[in-house]
Amino acid sequence: MPDNTGIYASFSLEPVEQTFLTEKEGRPIFADKEFVRIFISGDKHTEVYREVTDNDKQRFADAYKRFKEGAAAREQLTGTPLSQWPYLKPSQIKELEAVNIYTVEQLAALSDTAKQKIGMGANELTAAARAYLATAESSSAASAFAAENERLKDEVTRLQEQMREMAARFEAFENENGGKSRGRQAA
């Protein structure tokens, strides 16, 4: 799989005029075609917009899958939207979106060249984004451990209850048989 770090794609369905059929029918005839917009985070001047190829479908498989499931262009990106990260001011969000940065993950993965295009404070922003993602990952691991711990506690409690129930049954059985089972064990 190619390294797509900092390169993102959004897919769309666009009407394309079918000139041969338009001329033949004497009225505009269109067909829906899939198009891809490929862009680089931090670079508002570099963008590819063309009809989708099989290579695009493979290279950007996650985004293409979300597109096929009906997601809008922005929804095809995965990650934490900048608007959901309290670190940024609304003006910073707009500035970053103007250079094709829409998620915290995109911001954290910016190349040095892209940081230069953003200007002053870009290093601090990317460092803060990386720290946020690392903290979120640690929190996620801690939450998973806590959930597993609770599950294990519940399992131990359930097993203890089963053991008490089995002991009570065994004691009732012994009482019914007048302790005969102990004599059999000794023999």
Please indicate the percent range of residues in DSSP E strands (runs of 2 or more): 15-25%
The mean pLDDT is 80
Terminal Cα separation, in Å? 70 Å
Helical element count? 8
Q: How many strands?
A: 3
Query: Radius of gyration over alpha carbons?
Result: 31 Å
Global structural class: alpha+beta
Describe this structure as you would to a colleague.
With 187 residues, this protein is an alpha+beta fold. The chain has one domain. The protein is 56% helix and 17% strand. The protein has 8 helices and 3 strands. The termini are far apart. The model has no long low-confidence stretch (mean pLDDT 80).
From the structure above, extract its key features.
187 residues; alpha+beta; three-stranded antiparallel beta sheet; 17% strand
Summarize the structure.
The protein contains 8 helices and 3 strands, in the order E-H-E-E-H-H-H-H-H-H-H. The protein has about 190 residues and is α+β, with helices and mostly antiparallel strands. It has one domain.
